[in-house]
Amino acid sequence: MPDSTEGDDMNDASGKPVKRLGILSRVRAYFLAGVLVLAPIAITLALAFWLVDFVDSRVVHLIPAQWNPDTYLKDRFGVEFGLPGLGVLVLMIVITLIGWLTAGYVGRVMVRIGENIVARMPVVRSIYGAIKQIFETVLRNQSDSFRQAVLVEYPRRGLWTIAFVTGETEGEVQNLTKQDVVNIYVPTTPNPTSGFLLFVPREDVVFLDMPVEDAFKMIVSIGIVTPEDTRPETIRNTPRVSARTYDYPHNPEAPPRPARVANLIED
Fold first, then answer.
1. Which of 80, 81, 89, 79 is nearest to 59 (CA)?
2. For 31-42, how does the pLDDT look when each residue is reduced to its tens digit (9 = 90+)?
């Protein structure tokens, strides 16, 4: 009996045999297609609901009972119904009000007094200073942090990795370096929150036209998701770097170098 998972062979326009998918193969293909469509949506919704529930569980009970909409619904309709997202809304309002207060003179004075108190604490002041500087750098409107994806040779010559420019190198590091260097963050995969800070000469950095979001997708997916190269065809066909190093003696048994790579090395 023929296998229900395989179909009969047929010929395409060129006359080559093409195997038709059986019933079970088609069902499996449709199932995988459904997983590809639903899995990202389900994971995104699950994370969003978890975040909302996490914030609500820690903020809603801090709202006074007379101002809590849940109390009104219970007294008015006799139904205990927790409004989803209430804690998130209250938190956003509180953060906005704090920002508005600190923008004024009184708020700045209070912040300065608080920072002076923290500055007297040996360990806390270091943690607070580092966290504050990071947030000021990332959230500042004119900051270029993580706005440029680049290629750098790491961890050795001939091996390339995606990294991000976090700023211009300044201070003692730049003064001790003969070349003009930039701060490069090399993230690990699939967790880009950890990585390495490198000070790389600007001429050794290959700036990418790839958006930062696409670069992050490629890192998190461990290379499974590859962004499309949207550059003009003439630029796509012109290599700029080599993925091999030839500092060692050439192996006569090795295959010849591709012409474009050989020309690139000579240049």
1. 89
2. 988 898 898 899
